Amino acid sequence: MDFEREFYAKPTVHVAKNLLGQILYHYTPEGMVSGKIIETEAYLQNDPACHASRGMTKRNEAMFGSPGLAYVYLIYGIYACFNIVTFKEGVGEAVLIRALEPLEGVALMQKNRQKEKLKDLCSGPAKLVQALGIGLEHNKQDLIKGFLGIKKREKIKEEDIITTTRIGIKLGADLPLRFYLKNNEFVSKK
DNA sequence: ATGATGATTAACT
DNA sequence: GTTAATCATCATG
Questions:
Q1: Residue range A17-36: average pLDDT?
Q2: Nearest nucleotide by C1' position to the A60 CA atom
Q3: Which site among A36, A54, A106, A138 is 20 to 30 Å from A119 CA-CA?
Q4: Which nucleotides of C are covered by protein (CB under 7 A)?
Q5: Helix (H) / strand (E) containing A15
């Protein structure tokens, strides 16, 4: 069962925590692929690391759209990262999905990634995008309908959520806006 | 084991 | 021309 738009129309940090333990799925022409979300990061509008912190541009305009849309962007020339737009229209905030635990469609993920080991399939933002067959063409897709979306799965207890600083950024690197599940082997980094 | 580097595109200075 | 919310690969200890 998909979440309603209401689920995403809340403060970004709140949504980031609530996404942990849920299922990200993509119903591709080649079959269903899905995984449990185990790591997220929040990007706030007044956060220097956020693409939207210096206003709307062609690249980041999806972040200012309705909650529940996808924001997919290209990074370092060759990789893509998948975000979920949150809070409300006109405010540029989003949650970056950093890691999944593979569930359905593992064979297809292995094919997409050219890797065998489960831990190499979805243990990083650019990796899970490849594994699920997501691309820039999914930017601004509505996750509430369509073939790409979030399914309800587990309710995570507050004490099973680890909060730390974010990864791979320069500005705002000391803010505690990264969340991941305790005791999970698939987190992207220690 | 850890650390450095190349890949390669869009947006901004 | 520089930089970026990264990853895979190569080099060294």
A1: 96
A2: B11
A3: A138
A4: 3-8
A5: helix A12-19
